[in-house]
Amino acid sequence: MSSLARTNEREFEKKYQAFLDRFYRARGFAPERIGGAANRKGDVNLRKNGKSYLVEEKGLRKHEALAFEIIQDARLLARAEAHDGDTVVPANCLGNQFTTAAPAQMWYCEQNEVPCAVYQVITEALRQFYFGRFRDFKAVPVVRGYGLTYCVFIPWGQLLAGNIAKRIWTSEEKLA
């Protein structure tokens, strides 16, 4: 991936993080960003009334479907090992939907570079949905800031209908 593409990914991530921070504060939460290796477990701790909530965040430049990451960096698959008929894949090549410890995910969506929706997704319900229907979706290679990523695109309508996702903000609502 070119350095320009990585820069664009980082700029997009900063953009949606700033938006989500305003979104959280408008709802009375104090966001605390998580850096370094701990970030694989979740992106932000939301604090409110003495409680802390670990959240994974994702951003989409298009609004049609959730991008479920199966493999985050295909290069790392070269480190897979076979043992007694089982294959052990390095955890750092798995997509965040498999590795996050966050019980909830916030998905920022935009259309034509304008924020249009925020969805809250229940991590374990999303995993179970994918495992139960993985044959229904085609894995698609996507080049991102973390190398060659493989995703399946799950339409929001299916996730909303299954109570896996909830749309918690749309562009018709004012963001304080």
Give structural notes.
The protein is an alpha+beta fold. The protein has four helices and eleven strands. It has a domain of 119 residues: 3-Layer(aba) Sandwich (Trna Endonuclease, Chain: A, domain 1). The strands form three sheets. It has a six-stranded mixed sheet. Strands 4-10-9 form a three-stranded antiparallel sheet.
What are its keywords?
about 25% helix; six-stranded mixed beta sheet; 11 strands; three-stranded antiparallel beta sheet; about 40% strand; about 180 residues; Trna Endonuclease, Chain: A, domain 1; alpha+beta; single chain
Proportion of β residues? 35-45%
Strands ordered across the widest β-sheet:
1-2-3-7-8-11
Total number of β-strand segments?
Answer: 11
What Rg, in angstroms, do the CA atoms define? 17 Å
